[in-house]
């Protein structure tokens, strides 16, 4: 069929009502957002953002309302989509943006693709990976993995991906989204090691739209966290990583077929793990309990 590309869409969208089909790969995926309010009677007030790309560049794509429960879990990072009868509108200016793995990729930030159940009803097709042809020119998913030895040199709010062996996982805790609010964030602390430093990654993991993973993080599992943000606590210079709106978390049982399995730093970590004694590592693991972080000073005078 006659296809268009993202670059051509940006140049011509104002002069068209109907658009040719698009062939794109998902590079980033946001958590699912619920925007329902008691006074608004909507059946499925959900929304999710994706960053999709073809050979011309990258653009945001928004999945709306009842399409979210139908498609959200099928649309994974790396999935190739054939889209028809979609809508185009100006970008929402206050949306978060992931840091692309490929810094050279062109970003089309003025418009976004809208997938709706009507006006017009979008046609979505997932192309199996074995049917994707090189001549389509779709970019591969790229990552920004770091090792623990590199973490201390990174600036505040830097975006990165990490892999490590879980040595500690805390209980799930809640924090109010806003003061006096009825809404809470759910999060837990975890430590993961990768053999490059005596110190572990300290990870503040908020519940994303992956409850099946969040609830089953446990010691001795290989943990992958993408699109994490570096947080530096001053004046102590305590460094930890926290999840962002586009973070994805993976544990044992979810790694197979993920694009990051081809990354060099992931392969190096697997090699290091194969050289370790499982019995020795198990002795160092801890689960549950209260984890105050950043830790208070060891004396009241310093406090």
UniProtKB/TrEMBL annotation:
InterPro entries referenced in this protein's UniProt entry, alphabetically: NA-bd_OB-fold, RADX
Top-rank taxon: Eukaryota
MF annotations from Gene Ontology: single-stranded DNA binding
Name of the molecule in the record: RADX protein
């Amino acid at each position: 069929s006659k296809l268009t590309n993202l670059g051509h869409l940006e140049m011509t969208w104002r002069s068209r009502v109907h658009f040719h089909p698009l062939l794109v790969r998902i590079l980033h995926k946001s958590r699912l957002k619920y925007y329902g309010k008691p006074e608004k009677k909507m059946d499925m007030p959900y929304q999710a953002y994706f960053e999709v790309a073809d050979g011309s560049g990258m653009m945001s794509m928004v999945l709306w309302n009842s399409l979210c429960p139908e498609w959200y879990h099928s649309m994974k990072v790396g999935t190739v989509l054939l889209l028809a009868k979609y809508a185009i509108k100006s970008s929402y200016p206050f949306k978060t943006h992931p840091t692309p793995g490929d810094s050279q990729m062109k970003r089309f930030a003025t418009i976004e693709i809208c997938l709706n159940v009507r006006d017009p009803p979008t046609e979505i097709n997932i192309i199996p990976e074995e049917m994707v042809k090189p001549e389509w020119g779709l970019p591969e998913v790229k990552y920004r993995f770091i090792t623990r030895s590199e973490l201390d040199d990174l600036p505040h709010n830097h975006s990165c991906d990490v892999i490590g062996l879980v040595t500690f996982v805390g209980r799930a805790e809640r924090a109010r989204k806003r003061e006096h609010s009825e809404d809470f964030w759910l999060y837990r602390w975890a430590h993961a090691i990768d053999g490059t430093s005596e110190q572990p990654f300290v990870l503040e993991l908020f519940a994303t739209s992956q409850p099946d993973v969040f609830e089953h993080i446990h010691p001795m599992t290989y943990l992958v966290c993408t699109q994490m943000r570096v947080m530096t606590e001053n004046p102590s210079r305590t460094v930890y990583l926290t999840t962002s709106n586009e973070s994805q978390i993976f544990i044992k049982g979810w790694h197979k077929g993920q694009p990051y399995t081809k990354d060099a730093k992931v392969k190096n970590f697997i090699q290091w793990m194969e050289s370790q004694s499982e019995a020795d590592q198990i002795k160092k693991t801890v689960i549950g309990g209260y984890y105050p972080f950043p830790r208070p000073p060891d004396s009241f005078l310093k406090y």
